[in-house]
Amino acid sequence: MTEVEIRRATDADAEALARAYRSAYEENRRLGFPAKAESATERDVSEWIRKSRVYVAEAGDEVVGGVRLEATDSERVKLSRLGVHENRKGEGVGSRLLDRAERAVRDWGYATIWLTTPEDHPYLPDLYRRRGYEKTGTHPLEYREYDEIVMEKRVREGR
């Protein structure tokens, strides 16, 4: 198994990261939780990289996962598009991406990181709970047959 490095994404990563997202989010579709990321294009990912902070997980010269961070107010940053290529799931890549995202939010001086996830997903809410995230609300999805929950984690006191 090749060592995984986490680094800030560049526009040159967009095509490879889009492929990783399509692979990663195919599982959610099979589980009944389709998401936009399962059809991510190079153009979509390029826009995410330009408009927010995106980190990639790279094994050798292959992008195997990513995560996106967006400041939503003076205290909070939203974590989204956490995904790991199907071939690398279960190897701790997602945990490494979460570690990097949480450290980045703390280093920027924000107090809270938050995300949304399907409430009935068989393992994601529990994964986030084990990492210290708590359910703080619901996030109804008008365009999906399922709703999501909002989960937050304090990464530092105040701003």
What can you tell me about this protein's structure?
The mean pLDDT is about 95. The protein has a seven-stranded mixed β-sheet, sandwiched between helices. The chain is of the alpha+beta class and about 160 residues long. The protein has one domain (about 5-155): Aminopeptidase. It is about 30% helix and about 30% strand.
Low-confidence stretches: none
Rg result? 15 Å
Helix content: 25-40%
What proportion strand? 25-35%
> Treating each run of at least 4 consecutive H or I residues as one helix, how many helices?
4
Order of helices and strands: EHHEEEHEHEE
What would the keywords be for this entry?
159 residues, alpha+beta, Aminopeptidase, 7 strands
Q: What does this entry show, briefly?
A:
Helices cover 31% and strands 32% of the residues.
SSE layout:
Layout: E1 4-8, H1 14-30, H2 42-51, E2 53-59, E3 62-71, E4 76-84, H3 93-108, E5 112-118, H4 124-130, E6 134-139, E7 148-154
Parallel strand pairs: 4-5
Antiparallel strand pairs: 1-2, 2-3, 3-4, 5-7, 6-7
Helix pairs in contact: 1-2
